[in-house]
Amino acid sequence: MESLINKLKGGMDPNFRLFITALPNPEFPLGLLQMCSKVTNDPPAGLRAGLLRSYTPGVMVDQDRLERVDTPLWRQLIFALCFLHSIVQERRKFGPLGWCIPYEYNNGDLQSCMLFLEKHLYNGEISWGTFQYMVSDVQYGGKITDSLDVRLFRTYTKEWLTERT
What we know:
Layout: H1 2-9, H2 30-34, H3 47-54, H4 63-66, H5 72-91, H6 107-122, H7 128-139, H8 147-160
Helix pairs in contact: 3-5, 5-6, 6-7, 7-8
């Protein structure tokens, strides 16, 4: 790919632009990566934008996912998880006021929480303590190292992931 682009480079129109989309891969040519402009997909700005992104078809929550479990509690908890994820992402913008240590949360964290919830609901009644523990101490909390951040995240789950949801 790199040699092909170098061959064509001489005869190209100066306004020509080539866009390549790629996932991180150790076999991606380093020379090509260095001569390109890189664009990343950062989390959206704002709580509303974060929620809208979570509900964008093909990203995280689509109609198929909402219909997987036939209970109103499923949809409410999916929203609560998306809300929690958006809050967590948004707090990063505030530096040390948001989190004592910056943590790299991503859609995989939300995805794993939704998968756990789905499997948990298939097995019958939800155990709120188990669900809160899995979200606050395992899925998201596995990355948290500061004791104040742990306390804050546990508070989030105890308030938002309950029967009242």
